[in-house]
Structure formats: structure tokens, C-alpha cells
Predict the structure of Peptidase A1 domain-containing protein.
Amino acid sequence: MSSRIVINSIPFATHLKQGAKQILARDQARAQKFLQGLHPHGPNRSSAVSTEGTHHRHHHHKKHHQNDAAGAPDGSTGTVPTDPTSAPPAGGKVAPDSIDVTDAGVTYTMSVGVGQPPTQYTLLIDTGSSNTWVGAGTRYRQTSTSKATGNTVNVSYGSGSFSGNEFTDQVTLGDNLVIPNQSIGVATTANGFSDVDGILGIGPVDLTQGTVSNTETVPTVTDNLFKQGTIPTESIGISYEPTTSEGTLNGELTFGQVDTSKTTSDVTFVPITSSSPANNYWGIDQTLSYGQDTQLLQSSGIVDTGTTLLLLATDAFQAYQKATGATMDQTTGLLTVTEEQFNNMQSMFFNIGDTTLEFTPNAQIWPRSQNAALGGEAGKIYLITADLGSNIGQGLDFINGFAFLQRFYSVYDTTNAQVGFATTPFTDAETN
């Protein structure tokens, strides 16, 4: 492989099509699915797997390929050494293979090509699931690269589900990101998805367990990009930016490295938490405070692009509400503050590993220009922190969702079983 590293980046966008109550209900249903200790997609893995074993099995490829290679569509095997002290290589300041993603105000989507010639599908980008599938909107079009495996696929997401058939096909994420023989689901039925064609699953590979018949697990798109030598490290860097308008191309996925043109600090990495069920996903340990004096929680949870809000365990959420003086808005189901209360709000501080990320008052509110889309009142101030639905101590006490990730660069590193964060030019933005 050439020593020159090409930034494999993909711009993307989002579309706000749901009111706040629907967003909150979807996020909370998804959280309950996570809390059950089940995959978003299938039955819980064997209880014989220890917590430590789970930690490595979900994120270290040495075990993935030794034990699970029989499930790979191409039948390939092999081992990949891991180095827990390493990090994805940093990219340069130019991203020649950049792929835009669209900001929808709820989640992010990107255009993915399937087949040859490729049909373009608009897929949700989801770090909380690992199956890639199409057919919820635009129907699957078979080409010369399409191969039916004869297997069925069934996935439940808490707030939605799909079932259908497994194919292998060529998947094109960008000019330099082409994957032959990628396992994809082709939906015959799909519920809970509108204005999108399916999901690009970029969570840990073991989340595919039990979702495809006659198969233990199936490689994700990131697995296959790494295995075929397209990317030097099995990682994904995600850059989001706050927005005040819908459908803006203001996000970027970078496969295999860190795009330092999007960051204003080094990336600080922390290992995947050992706490269950958070360790099934991109789970981390963090201490969260409001201002300098009010600690909200010190526990484990997950980072999830598929969740819109910042969800906190009920007792932490109540402490946050008390500290801000916010009241519950019955129309939207979100907390709201007056202009005076907003002017007196303090930053939240996310202590993750050796770094502290400051989440300013402006970052804690929904963009006021999008209040109408929320079903809210013009000019009213709504907060993006909501109730997870269970008290602290469940092994998954927070979800740092889309609203949090718009202020920081995040890295999901399978090779080294870690999650990383860096500040960006938008960490302190006054856009809301």
C-alpha cells in the first residue's frame, strides 16, 4: 500500500421531517432497546460470554475474523493485529475524496451507490447498528453484481424494523471507497422509516449477530474496507456542524483516518467501557457536570449518531432541569427556558478520559430557526437534553446523540477498541 494516505471523506446531509414529540418518542424507544441488553437487531448473544470477552469480541478484529469468518459472504479469513496504543493516522488538510452528508436536524443521511451501474440510495448513518440495507423507499435494482444468498434478514430498531432478503453486491461510498461483495439487506417490509431508503450501519460488527439466517455475523462496510486494504485503520471519523437550515451539506464521514482539517485539537481516545449493556455499542465512561458545581452523573453510556437528543438518566435529567430552571413544554415534550434563564445558563462539561469537553449554553438549545419544524413556537427556546427513561445505574445512563456530536469531531476505532473526540471550529459556535 502506498505511503501516501488519501482522505476517504464523504459529505452528508439531514432532513427534519418529524415534530419534537415524534423525535423524543423515537429516541426513547431506541434507548429502551439498548437498555434491554439486546442488539438493536436480534437476540442477545450467549450469556456465557464474559464482560471482558464481550469488550474485545465486539471491537477487536483478531477475534472477529478467526471466529466469525464463516459468516462472511466471500468466505474469507485472516487475522489483523491490534495495538491499543495506536490511533488512526491523521489526514492532511485536503480531502480530495470527500463525500457530503446532509443535516436533517434529526439525523444524518448520505447517498450510497449499490450495484453496477450503481443505483443511489439515501441511507441513515447509524453508529448504533451494523446492518446496511436498502429498499424502504427506492426499490432495490439488481445488476450484474447482485447475488442472492438465499438468507433472510430481520432487524428491529426499537422505533422501527425491516425484514427482507440478503444479497451481496458492490457498494460505492465514494470514488476511492468501493466494496465488492458487501452483504446488504433488501427490505420486503420496512416500518418507521420515511424519506430514506435504509441504513448504513457502522456500529460494532457483533450487532449483526442473529440478524441474517444461517450466519453468525456479517462484515460491516468498515470491516470490508479495512480487510481489502482500502483504509489503513478500521475507523470512522465523523464531522458534523451546527446548522440553522434544513438539508444543508454540513457533515463528513472519513474512513480509516482523522481529517485534521475538521479539528482544532488533538483527538483524545478512551477505551470502550467494560459496563454492560453499553459495551455492546460505542460505549464510553464519562463524568457530566452542569457548571462547575453540579455533577449530573459519573457512569457509562454510548455515543450514537442514530439518536437525535442528549439523553440522560432520569435522576440526572431532573438535576439538570432544576439547575437550569427549565419547565416542560407540553406541546413539544422538550424542556424550555425563558430568555433570561438562557442568558444565565452555564456550560455542561463532559469529562471523558483525559479531556474535558465544554458544551456551551448555545449548544444546549435547539436552533430557534427550526422551531416551526419541531411543532414549537417561534422564538421560544427549547433544550436538547431529554429523559432517557431510567435512573442511574443501568450500565447505560446516557446517550450522546446528534445534538452533542454537532459540536465535536468523533472517531469510532474498531482496530483499537476506542472512541475519540476533538474540538472543532463549531464547538463554541453561537448559531442557535
